[in-house]
């Protein structure tokens, strides 16, 4: 009798264990399936594009220089015996700056002029004798040629003597001198610099990237740190057509409304607004861009999946970038997690607003 009772009870417990194990297996399979589903989606962080103007002003710095600076070079060689002007002196056109020793040249001129007078008398005598047949035509022409050579020699000596007095070619202020009394001056050597005129300009160097955003005649704002950042207006006057050896383009900015406090050699900063800044553009985070700025693309999220979009970029700074085409203002743009994305892959948005 006891055996009859034990057997059904055992069968019941065995069935119960089998049912529990089966149920647990089903639950584990469901969890595993859910886990696999979750793991097939890639977590990303997104943002919404916005319309705005990107603050992309170009900040450059440089040195204020005179609009016109004359470099005076010596046409003669010799010892400087007198210095008439020094740095800072105001000069008028034709004023003497230095005098080079010319005693030897003057003596040579005196001798040449005496020889010329002698040649002139000889020719007059030859002309008289030639009419009498005492002097041949060839002898007369030879004397006349010698006279012309002497005239050229005298003219050359006068020019050399004149060049020993170095004068200002234009009116202005002497910004620098290079010669002192007793010093040897060489032909072609620098004597002085003259700032001619009252206009000043700021000279800056721009990268090849920035120079494309700057146009001639564009109004700019200039600040001078040494004058407590006093502001001056300016206008872009000259943009170099060719870069220098360091791949920078020289830009001259003409200053307007200047006063005596502003002087050549001062350091200054300039703020230039780039071209095409008037219209608003779609703005997104720069970190959303993949593939660099030459061939930029990004990912948008639509219906739970990521889609690749090639875009045309505009101005940019360290944090943001303008998008001219490729996305709309209503798109959801991925700005983090792009490294694992491919076109059409499912994604989960971590910063999704409920």
TrEMBL record:
One of its GO terms (molecular function) is efflux transmembrane transporter activity. Residues 202-273 form the CusB-like beta-barrel domain. Keywords: Coiled coil, Membrane, Transmembrane, Transmembrane helix. The chain crosses the membrane at residues 6-22. Residues 287-348 form the YknX-like C-terminal permuted SH3-like domain. Residues 70-194 form the Multidrug resistance protein MdtA-like barrel-sandwich hybrid domain. NCBIfam families: RND_mfp. GO terms for cellular component: efflux pump complex. Residues 140-167 form a coiled coil. Gene3D superfamilies: 2.40.30.170, 2.40.420.20, 2.40.50.100, Helix hairpin bin (1.10.287.470). This is HlyD family secretion protein. Belongs to the membrane fusion protein (MFP) (TC 8.A.1) family. InterPro entries: Beta-barrel_RND_2, MdtA-like_BSH, RND_pump_MFP, YknX-like_C. It comes from uncultured Dysgonomonas sp.
